[in-house]
């Protein structure tokens, strides 16, 4: 056994199992492309697949001529509604799953999700102020998103500052600061809602809270996709530090790394991602919690292997969740947050039971 | 590697835990630190391996002030096996050992075949080669401790600090663990509860009480009936086994009326 292992590592120059992860990654990239190309053909308006690809090829690569294209309403549906929405789902799924993974490492807690440090409450307060009080309407059509982004980002910074008072931040202090500020924001939101007492606006807050990809447009995507991609690449380079975070501060110091500064940097990057996601699509829960866990169940904890796999899985998951949310009830759209909890939870429970997966442990 | 401390003072929660403590550990010595609970053994070791900053005093590695050395450089010189190594997240055994290569890695540098070779050799030294694919959390306490020792070995340091590493191990694994540490022929500094184990393995022993060193010397010099009474307030019998030339410390039970 021992000799076999050594031989395998030395002669082939391939680390144990690395080829599997490379294979899985390639497979997931193909699945992602396939998902984008398939999901674009699904929707309430019937447009033939041939027409759809013709439109995409024309718009992307200038292949074909204007005259050969189908009607302009089909072009609008494909190019300005369906495709942006799918690409936004790709961004948001990637951003949520990667932030969830990073957040779990930063606070060293498998229950963490991207919103654990009060980000969602901050966004909620921002959105409440915007919708209920009409603050920030000069910021343009998506002023609610902008206010939510500001709320989310301010809370992230406050959590970091608060947990650094008196002594350096550690995972427990971060969690407690997050919880405290989260309660405070919720209280203020409730206060505003209670005293404004406007049913119509309350309804639009509720809609906003459940998250939706319907607001997708190319301008937003051009802005957030590069940032999320750069963040993913950045975190792929950080796998060693992320692994150390799971082992704790003391062990890290004995291995030559003080985690404090890294925690701050990672929090800043994830806050930015989450802020952008909140801006573009509201609060979509659960993806950032289950995707990292599902990936961990299947591929282990080592961040060297799972960061990119996790990002791709998040994208694929959200694309199909969005497709389902559009077609599951004919003629109307189910909020994606509700759908994800409904289909995600059973998958999660199944994996938890079948792999005897206890809080991130045991394979 | 030599290690020394001068006039270390540590306060924790307003209480003085280390009181003007100085010690000197020579190259390749196996040094035991004994003392009752709360005597400051762990605090001393934490100050030495830098997870705790002393309020005053200086620590030297090979005559260099530890404050002038980066954490990364320290981690290339000193490896640590502490008491508890549980985590909510699980790693495979080989990944856990590979993490020991961290101090040798530059920013963004990935593991290479040489790192795997060192990790596997470390596992072999602790007799855990067959476990390399197992998940760390599924191991028994003794197996976990040996994997952590392998991780420390993968750091390739000239000094090992052990903080009561054999606390939860049965006698076989206690002996095995200490024998592995002894066989490395590097500087070892270990807090030890079991005086018989200390007598078996240590070249030198520091006896600590209330944050001070009260005795220092070879096991035969330090581990006397008198000192054990002073340290632990326990009566004992210290014999030398003539056949094996090992020390044998027997404790007398308390008389409860």
UniProtKB/TrEMBL annotation, chain B:
Name recorded for this polypeptide: ABC transporter ATP-binding protein
The keyword NADP is assigned to this record: no
Q: What InterPro entries does its record include?
A: AAA+_ATPase, ABC_transporter-like_ATP-bd, ABC_transporter-like_CS, P-loop_NTPase
Q: What is the lineage of its organism?
A: Bacteria, Bacillati, Bacillota, Tissierellia, Tissierellales
User: Which terms are listed as keywords in the entry?
Assistant: ATP-binding, Nucleotide-binding, Transport
PANTHER family in the record: ABC TRANSPORTER ATP-BINDING PROTEIN, HEMIN IMPORT ATP-BINDING PROTEIN HMUV
Q: Which organism is it from?
A: Tissierella pigra
Give any GO molecular function from the UniProt entry.
ATP binding
Keyword presence, DNA-binding:
no
Q: Where in this chain does the record put each ABC transporter domain?
A: 3-235
| Source organism, top-level taxon | Bacteria
């Amino acid at each position: 056994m021992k000799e076999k292992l050594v031989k395998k590592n030395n002669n082939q120059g391939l680390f144990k199992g690395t080829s599997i992860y490379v294979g899985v990654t390639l497979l997931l990239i193909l699945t992602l492309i396939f998902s984008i190309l398939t999901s674009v053909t699904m929707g309430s308006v019937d447009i033939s697949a041939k027409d759809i690809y013709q439109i995409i090829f024309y718009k992307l690569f200038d292949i074909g001529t204007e005259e050969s294209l189908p009607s302009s309403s089909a072009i609008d549906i494909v190019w300005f509604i369906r495709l942006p929405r799918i690409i936004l789902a790709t961004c948001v799924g990637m951003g949520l799953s990667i932030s969830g993974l990073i957040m779990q490492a930063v606070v060293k807690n498998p229950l963490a999700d991207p919103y654990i440090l009060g980000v969602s409450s901050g966004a909620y307060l921002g959105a409440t102020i915007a919708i209920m009080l009409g603050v920030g309407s000069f910021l343009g059509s998506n002023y609610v998103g902008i206010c939510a982004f500001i709320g989310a980002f301010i809370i992230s910074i406050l959590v970091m500052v608060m947990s650094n008072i008196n002594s350096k931040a550690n995972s427990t202090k971060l969690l407690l600061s997050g919880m405290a500020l989260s309660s405070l924001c919720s209280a203020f939101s409730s206060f505003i809602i209670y005293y404004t007492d406007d049913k119509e606006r309350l309804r639009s807050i509720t809609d906003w809270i459940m998250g939706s990809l319907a607001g997708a447009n190319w301008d937003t995507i051009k802005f957030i996709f590069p940032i999320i991609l750069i963040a993913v690449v950045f975190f792929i380079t950080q796998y060693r530090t992320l692994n150390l975070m799971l082992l704790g501060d003391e062990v890290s110091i004995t291995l030559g790394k003080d985690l404090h500064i890294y925690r701050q940097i990672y929090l800043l990057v994830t806050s930015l991602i989450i802020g952008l996601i909140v801006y573009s699509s509201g609060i979509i829960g659960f993806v950032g919690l289950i995707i990292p866990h599902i990936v961990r169940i299947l591929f282990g904890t080592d961040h060297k292997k799972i960061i990119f796999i996790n990002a791709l899985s998040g994208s694929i998951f959200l694309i199909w969740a969005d497709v389902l949310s559009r077609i599951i009830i004919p003629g109307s759209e189910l909020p994606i947050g509700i759908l994800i909890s409904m289909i995600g939870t059973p998958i999660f429970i199944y994996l938890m039971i079948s792999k005897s997966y206890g809080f991130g442990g045991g394979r | 590697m030599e290690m020394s401390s001068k006039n270390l003072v540590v306060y924790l929660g307003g209480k003085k835990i280390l009181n003007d403590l100085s010690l000197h550990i020579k190259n390749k010595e196996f040094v035991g630190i004994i003392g009752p609970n709360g005597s400051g053994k762990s605090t001393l070791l934490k100050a030495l391996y830098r997870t705790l900053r002393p309020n005053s005093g200086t620590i030297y590695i090979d005559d260099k002030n530890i404050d002038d050395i980066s954490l990364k450089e320290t981690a290339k010189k000193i490896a640590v096996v502490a008491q508890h190594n549980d985590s909510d997240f699980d790693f495979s055994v080989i990944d856990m050992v590979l993490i020991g290569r961290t101090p040798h890695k530059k920013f963004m540098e990935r593991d290479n075949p040489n790192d795997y070779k060192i990790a596997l050799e470390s596992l072999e030294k602790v007799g855990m080669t067959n476990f390399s694919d197992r998940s760390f959390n599924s191991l028994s306490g003794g197996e976990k401790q040996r994997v952590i020792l392998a991780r420390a070995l993968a750091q390739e340091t000239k000094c090992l600090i052990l903080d009561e590493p054999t606390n939860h191990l049965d006698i076989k694994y206690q002996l095995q663990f200490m024998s592995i540490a002894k066989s490395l022929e590097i500087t070892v500094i270990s807090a030890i509860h079991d005086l018989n184990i200390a007598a078996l393995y240590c070249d030198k022993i520091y006896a600590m009480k209330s944050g001070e060193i009260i005795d220092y010397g070879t096991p035969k010099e330090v581990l006397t009936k008198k000192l054990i009474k002073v340290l632990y307030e326990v009566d004992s019998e210290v014999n030398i086994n003539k056949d094996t030339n090992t020390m044998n410390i027997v404790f007398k039970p308390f008389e409860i009326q």
